[in-house]
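task queued by scheduler; priority normal; single chain, no ligands, no partner chains; default sampling; output format set to structure tokens
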Amino acid sequence: MSKIKVFCFGFGQVAQYFARKILKENKELELNISSRKKSYISKFEGLNMNSYEFSNTKIDKDMNSKIQDADFILVSIPPVNGEDIVIKNLKETIKKTNTKWITYLSATSVYGNHEGGWVNEDSETKPTSINGIKRLEAENQWLKYANENNLPLQIFRLSGIYSVENNILKRLISGQAKIIKKENHYFSRIHVEDIANILFDSMKKFKNNEIYNISDDKPASQEEIASYGSKLLNIKLPEFFELESLEDGMLKDFYKDSKKVDNQKVKNFFKYQFTYPTYKEGLDRIFNDMV
């Protein structure tokens, strides 16, 4: 069996779960990643992994051949100072790749506020936060660049990610959960395992220039999520804060937008059944693994 060659720009939880999924399916993997740290070789799940230094100011050019030789390129680096640094610094390198796909991980913040209504991939994008604005600009950069250079591209717009490592149960236990009481505030989320599964499925089933929402079936308020988590843990629900009491920042931006993210396109195209179709299955699994 020939090795699957994957290059990950950034190696956060989504990229890590994706790599684990490949290994779990008994596939041989050659894994190369970028990092802001100095280049090094390390182990990931027993696998030798090359990490190449990459930032706006320092680029290890030894990674160029690995990028061009990659079967799949995953881009999970958010915009830096408002710019997509992969296109900015490596457009000539990526032009020469023979990759089967490039996947750019964006965010559903590009939709902005829809007053609690449903959004799909054809909905108006009117981001309200700086992060959402820059994500949309990066999406458009990637679409333009891929079309001009005949590169295979798909964009995944991710809802709020939760996982074993990062979830409301941990925040409730530590006392770090900050819940704002706001009427008609809906947001969507997705378990990181489902993202990894869909990425894996897309290695065999791919359509160029497509955008997909990656979100579970049940948008809900933060209050609803925290209430369910508190019941699982058998602890008191933390007191609510007023929106006006928040300082400007990511949390306040989060509460500006209210929308329900539709996932029919990704389910229909990949014939995908979610492992965690709602937050209840996801939190139940995390809780059961804790006790």
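post-processing summary
- The domain at 4-163+190-216+262-275 is CATH 3.40.50.720 (Rossmann fold).
- The longest strand covers residues 29-35.
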